Amino acid sequence: MDLLFPLDSDPTDRGGAAAPPAAAGAPLAERMRPRTFDEYVGQDEILAPGRPLRQAIERDLLQSIILWGPPGTGKTTLARIIADTTRARFVSFSAVLAGIKEIREVMGEAERNRRTTGRRTIVFIDEIHRFNKAQQDAFLPRVEAGDIVLIGATTENPSFEVNAALLSRSKVFVLRGLTTEEVTGLLARAIADADRGLGAERVEVDADALQTIALTTNGDARAALNLLELSVAAAPIDDGVRRLTAARVQESLQRKALLYDKNGEEHYNLISALHKSMRNSDPDAAVYWLARMVEAGEDPLYIARRLVRFASEDVGNADPQALSVAMAARDAVHFMGMPEGNTALAQLTIYLATAPKSNAVYEAYNQAARHAHEQVAEPVPLHLRNAPTRLMKQLDYGKGYRYAHGEPDAVADMSCLPESLAGQKFYRPTERGFEKEIKRRLDGWEQIKQKRRTTE
Questions:
Q1: I need a labelling partner for 59 at 20 to 30 A (CA). Which of 140, 294, 330, 352 fits?
Q2: Computed over its alpha carbons, how large is the radius of gyration of the chain?
Q3: Can you tell me the distance from the alpha carbon of 77 to that of 37, in angstroms, rounded to the nearest whole number?
Q4: What pTM, to 2 d.p., does this model score?
């Protein structure tokens, strides 16, 4: 078991004692970690005075909760504030290090503690999404019995990463990334704080430098403080003063760390934004979301596969050329690799966003598939069957088949569906793009067939 928070002399009795201050040599982000709600930055939506979560913490009436948000938004900090506020026994796990044995030991102690003293145990699990189902299940009986209050912190969507039974017994609170103004305020506080920050040093930081750090770190307070500390340490000294400019910050920053997880929710959020922007014929938004994925290191062939799918699903026969362009872009990415392949992806993305749209092919297949699953699988009509043998011909295989090329206008008045589906329409072309021409053809052929039926 990894005890995340420094405990007092009795490791089984956290009881709300204040955590000792961070050592002088600790990173700036750790030294500046808020210790009270007055120091806490952001999340006013759930933690402003009078909000239910804030009241539950201050009154020591907290129930099991899941804190879900991106890195550096205050999940662990909030848990520490709860630890310093509660009169309950407080135990912390790191899901990276703890196993079933440690969990069962703590759960057994929590049960005994509740039975003998009536005192509950608050269990904080950092990165709860890293616990597997069996590990999460080990907490469930004690949560149900009221022996523990569970606080889970996760950067992943709890709907996918937390057991349904545990999730149903917890309240999920979503923590957002900090705003640029909140991050710059936090940085300014760190520069001015003489006890825990950089205030005891002779440091001058331009406002543009703070803005650059805030924009670069995408609402991640820990990353912002780390970048500030690194940039100040590398800043030149002039007359005993370290001066930090935006240019110096850029030198410290090799590459902007974009919030992205190839296997997590942000992966699906961004591909969804790309797909829906193209569907809505918005090339500017589409190429932006594409760039977000490419610059964050997404597999370019994954993006290409999704764009090929889009060419059929959302453009379809409104522009039949779209699929050819998509395959060409995929081949270009495969041939050139990255970063050279990024323009091929961008060209395809803009082409698809500006192409006429139709999901008629997609809908036609889905309807046909539903019929195939839900209806009786009727045999192929005899006139559509091949008859390569004498027996098959004797059984009327192929009888009544009419060769389209031998008919006027190369179309025969002949049903090609099973009898129960005769006249069924799966493909309904739109009036957009090339499908307008396809619709004209289909309507014309239907008129020819109807005319022949009335004259025969």
A1: 140
A2: 32
A3: 10
A4: 0.61
Structural domain spans, the chain: 28-174, 180-252, 265-354, 374-455
Report the topology of domain 28-174.
Rossmann fold (3.40.50)
pLDDT tens column, 427-448: 889 898 988 898 888 888 888 8
Cis peptide before 52 (omega within 30 of 0): no
Q: At what angle do helices 300-310 and 265-279 cross, to 10 degrees?
A: 40
- C-alpha closest to that of 249 among 233, 264, 265, 263: 233
> Angle 34-39-45 (CA atoms, 0-180°, nearest 5)?
105
Per-residue exposure over 371-399, b if at least 16 CB sit within 10 Å of its own CB, e if not: beeeeeeeeebeeeeebeeeeeeeeebee
- Measured CA to CA, the distance from residue 196 to residue 97 in angstroms comes to 29
CB 39 within 8 A of CB 128: no
pLDDT of residue 416: 80
3-state secondary structure 162-216: CCHHHHHCCEEEECCCCCHHHHHHHHHHHHHCCCCCCCCCCEEECHHHHHHHHHH
232: left (phi over 0), alpha (psi -120 to 50) or beta: alpha
CA-to-CA distance for 102 and 91, rounded, in angstroms? 11
**What does CATH list as the number for 265-354?**
1.20.272.10
The domain defined by 180-252 folds into: Helicase, Ruva Protein; domain 3 (1.10.8)
Distance CA 375, CA 369 (A): 10
Q: Which residue matches tokens 């590459």? A: 255
